[in-house]
Amino acid sequence: MSENSESDVNSREMIKQLSHRRILFVMGMIVILGSIFCSLYVSRLFGLGFFLGGILSFINYYWLKATLKRVFEEASEGERPAVSAGRYVGRYLAIGAIIGFVFLTRTVPVASVILGLTSFALAVLVEALIRIFLIVFNRKEI
């Protein structure tokens, strides 16, 4: 019985790592293809704005990951996590300041930057569709 539960844990961990890598890969593809598509069919500045939003999305993702990792490591050691609300919300303020700067300077359309920020949500949606496909067709992994 312990062998089965141990293999289940290892299997879940492997799936999490594959899923994580796939989400980041899909996110990168969305940013690149979205930027190209926007550049060709809207304007070069719109494509550049989409790319900037995608880069901000990656920064936001890694910043949140680092913050949460620190919180959970402290909690697992029995300490009370010493993360302040200001540090946690700081990434929102930083991204908001960048979007505000883009809006005020009108260097690129702010709508394209916000659209690029959605690249993570789209990547998660693609991952969910892949998972549904795998469950329906009862396959192990793509």
Comma- or semicolon-separated keywords:
mainly alpha; single chain; 85% helix
What can you tell me about this protein's structure?
The chain is 85% helix and 0% strand. Helix 2 (44-76) packs across helix 4 (110-117). By secondary structure, it is mostly helical. It has five helices and no strands. It starts with a helix and ends in a 6-residue tail after the last helix. The model has no long low-confidence stretch (mean pLDDT 84). 17% of the residues are buried. The protein has helices at 2-41, 44-76, 85-105, 110-117, 119-136.
Can you tell me the residue ranges where pLDDT is under 50 for at least 5 consecutive residues?
A: none
Average pLDDT over all residues: 84
DSSP helix count?
A: 5
Q: Oligomeric form of this entry?
A: single chain
Shape: flat
Radius of gyration equals 19 Å
Ends apart, CA distance between termini: 28 Å
Largest sheet: none
* Sheet/helix structural class: mainly alpha
Number of strands: 0
Per DSSP, what share of the residues sits in E-state strands of 2 or more residues? under 5%
Order of helices and strands: HHHHH
Percent range for helical residues?
over 70%
Provide the fold topology.
Blueprint: H1 2-41, H2 44-76, H3 85-105, H4 110-117, H5 119-136
Helix pairs in contact: 1-2, 1-5, 2-3, 2-4
Offer a concise description of the structure.
The model has no long low-confidence stretch (mean pLDDT 84).
